Amino acid sequence: PSKVFSSVQSKMATDKVHIRHCILYEFQQGRNAVRACESIYSFLSEGVVSYNVCAFWFKRFK
């Protein structure tokens, strides 16, 4: 693999972990998956994480 591809792949993995931490934070604040997505959209950008992904992680955290 090229260095560029490896760098992009590494950044994507880091971004996913970062978003997962954001979802966990929202969960710990007592929000539901919909509110978590809305909150994440407000400080990152809309579409960065789907409701289905938030709901999946909320189920895993319970």
Keywords:
77% helix, Arc Repressor Mutant, subunit A, mainly alpha, 62 residues, single chain, Mos1_HTH
Describe the overall structure.
- This protein has 62 residues and is an all-alpha fold.
- The protein has a single domain, classed as Arc Repressor Mutant, subunit A (Orthogonal Bundle).
- Helix content is 77%, strand content 0%.
- It has helices spanning 3-28, 33-43, 51-61.
- α1 (3-28) packs across α2 (33-43), α1 (3-28) crosses α3 and α2 (33-43) packs across α3.
- It is globular, with a radius of gyration of 13 Å.
- It comes from Harpegnathos saltator.
- It holds the Pfam family HTH_48.
- InterPro entries: Mos1_HTH.
- This is Mos1 transposase HTH domain-containing protein.
- Residues 16-62 form the Mos1 transposase HTH domain.
What topology emerges from the helices and strands here?
Elements: H1 3-28, H2 33-43, H3 51-61
Helix pairs in contact: 1-2, 1-3, 2-3
InterPro entries: Mos1_HTH
Protein name: Mos1 transposase HTH domain-containing protein
Domain Mos1 transposase HTH: 16-62
Biggest sheet character: none
Structural class, judged by helices and strands?
mainly alpha
What's the CATH architecture name?
Orthogonal Bundle
- Mean pLDDT across the residues is 84
**How is the quaternary structure best described?**
single chain
Helix fraction by DSSP (H/I, runs of at least 4): over 70%
Number of helices: 3
Radius of gyration: 13 Å
Q: How would the global form be characterised?
A: globular
Q: Extract low-pLDDT stretches.
A: none
Provide the CATH top-level class: Mainly Alpha
Number of domains: 1
Q: Can you write the helix and strand succession as a string?
A: HHH
CATH topology: Arc Repressor Mutant, subunit A
Strand content: under 5%
Instruction: Give the number of DSSP strands.
Output: 0
N-end to C-end Cα span: 38 Å
Pfam families: HTH_48 (PF17906)
Protein name: Mos1 transposase HTH domain-containing protein
Domain Mos1 transposase HTH: 16-62
InterPro entries: Mos1_HTH (IPR041426)
